[in-house]
Amino acid sequence: MDDLKNKYLTAILQAGDEATLEDIRLQAVGKKGEVALKMRELGKMTPEERQVMGPKLNALKDEINSALAAKKVALEDAALDARLAEEWLDVTLPGRGRPQGTIHPISRVSEEIYAIFADLGFAVAEGPQIEDDWHNFDALNIAPHHPARQEHDTFYMHRAEGDERAPNVLRTHTSPVQIRTMLDQGAPIRIIAPGRVYRSDYDQTHTPMFHQVEGMAIDKDISMANLKWVLEEFYTAFFGTKVKTRFRASHFPFTEPSAEVDVQCKWENGTVTVGEGDDWLEVLGSGMMHPNVLKSGGIDPKEWQGFAFGMGIDRLAMLKYGIPDLRAFFDSDLRWLRHYGFSALGTPTLAGGIHG
Ligand code: 2NL
């Protein structure tokens, strides 16, 4: 009996892992283990012998079981100590950065434009991108067979077969928003109408969708002088430097008289800088609102007059941020945007807030 006890207690002490310990447990106190075999022998003993051997065997079994339990805890502790020594984490390391999106240059320039015109007293007006041909053309004094309808490279919507109404169009300018505002609010008005416009045209300087901002001021005595002051204030604020403007006589169906506006610029090594030099760059069309257009907007041209203008936002963004190809904005090759300092993902590299 003592041999048995010594044999197992020694084996338990020497066990190096939990699998060995489990083998010992089965051999010693398992159902078919050595102690169980000895228990079975009790049946063949005399009652006196049994009274001595029974409790002894039970005590042996208990002793082995508690030695097994103690060793199990010791092995688990040792395993944990080993893992703690091996695996560790430097919680002082800096975290992994996650790329952040940035504002698209068109959105950014749009916000800059809203902020400047807000300071000049202009509210922002919006309207639908799918228009009927009255709001897009007729109301703007563009007659049904006027070449401007073709010049605009209009996208026409489809009508159901048998529907004889003129097809709707993707608006070719944001002028229809100005017509809608006149009809809704009446005079006096000071608004800008920014947004997406569509023309079927695609090359280095044209995309089928682009962004325009039109503006108008209607009151009793608005003149071309007010227009010139507003535009000079605008370009000076937008480019962050005093910008001279030059008005050239022109023609649009919706304004009379009409003027194209150039900003002062300088060409150097194929790049253009606005607000310096003796060259001129065309950036805008404008004029006094045609009486017929005021009438379309429900405003009496004998009582009210106003100026209107229209310019491309995309081109303005290209000029301000030195982006030479319009397609960089929309062809979604992110390397282009990144090259010009606008990363779609990653740290933006252009300094400054809304006014650059
Ligand atoms: C250009 C020309 C222009 C307007 C847009 C306008 C709108 C109304 C009435 C009168 Cl409702 N005019 N808009 C006027 C002159 C020129 O845009 O070349 N834009 C890039």
TrEMBL record:
Mg(2+) binds at residue 256. GO terms for cellular component: cytoplasm. Its EC number is 6.1.1.20. Its cofactor is Mg(2+). It comes from the Bacteria. The keyword Nucleotide-binding applies. InterPro entries: aa-tRNA-synth_II, aa-tRNA-synth_II/BPL/LPL, Phe-tRNA-synth_IIc_asu, Phe-tRNA_ligase_II_N, Phe_tRNA_ligase_alpha1_bac, Phenylalanyl-tRNA_Synthase, tRNA-bd_arm. It catalyses: tRNA(Phe) + L-phenylalanine + ATP = L-phenylalanyl-tRNA(Phe) + AMP + diphosphate + H(+). It is an enzyme of class 6 (ligase). Keywords: Aminoacyl-tRNA synthetase, ATP-binding, Cytoplasm, Ligase, Magnesium, Metal-binding, Nucleotide-binding, Protein biosynthesis. PROSITE patterns: AA_TRNA_LIGASE_II. It is found in: Cytoplasm. Pfam families: Phe_tRNA-synt_N, tRNA-synt_2d. Binds 2 magnesium ions per tetramer. CDD domains: PheRS_alpha_core. HAMAP family: Phe_tRNA_synth_alpha1. This is Phenylalanine--tRNA ligase alpha subunit. It comes from Celeribacter halophilus. The lineage of its organism: Bacteria, Pseudomonadati, Pseudomonadota, Alphaproteobacteria, Rhodobacterales. The gene is pheS.
